[in-house]
Amino acid sequence: MLYTISEAAVKMRLTPYTLRYYDREGLIPFVERSAGGVRMFKEKDFGWIRLIECMKATGMPIKEIKQFVDWYMEGNSTLQLRRDMFYERKELVEEQIESLQKTLDTIKYKCWFYDTAVAAGTTSVPKNMKPEDMPDEIRQLKGKIDL
């Protein structure tokens, strides 16, 4: 089945503008065109677009995504380069996850802190609470964060 750019955009939850941009930047060079120049997307193209979106979600610049596409188009001689690129991305995403987990831990602690303060009518209750009087999860969170 073939999809127009509008149909492909709906299917991918993107805008036609985004797909045109990807095409202009050389990120989807394999998308076929009709005799009249209309882009025609196939089912297999959507997996590639999902990969582009995944790389973008890691913060990878379009220029680096384009480099990956170029290496892909070159074939097996670039396997190591493409593999290395994904290992670098993996490391970066793992660091981002760790950072976000610390942020989430802080927010969870602060939610407990303010729930406790609101219930008591003062921040002095959670501020002065002994660790052994805190719920286990909160005590563990407090031990992980610098507050």
TrEMBL record:
Residues 2-71 form the HTH merR-type domain. Residues 83-110 form a coiled coil. The keyword Glycoprotein does not apply. The keyword DNA-binding applies. CDD domains: HTH_YyaN (cd01109). GO terms for molecular function: DNA binding; DNA-binding transcription factor activity. It comes from the Bacteria. InterPro entries: DNA-bd_dom_put_sf (IPR009061), MerR-type_HTH_dom (IPR000551), MerR_fam (IPR047057). PROSITE patterns: HTH_MERR_2. Keywords: Coiled coil, DNA-binding. This is MerR family transcriptional regulator.
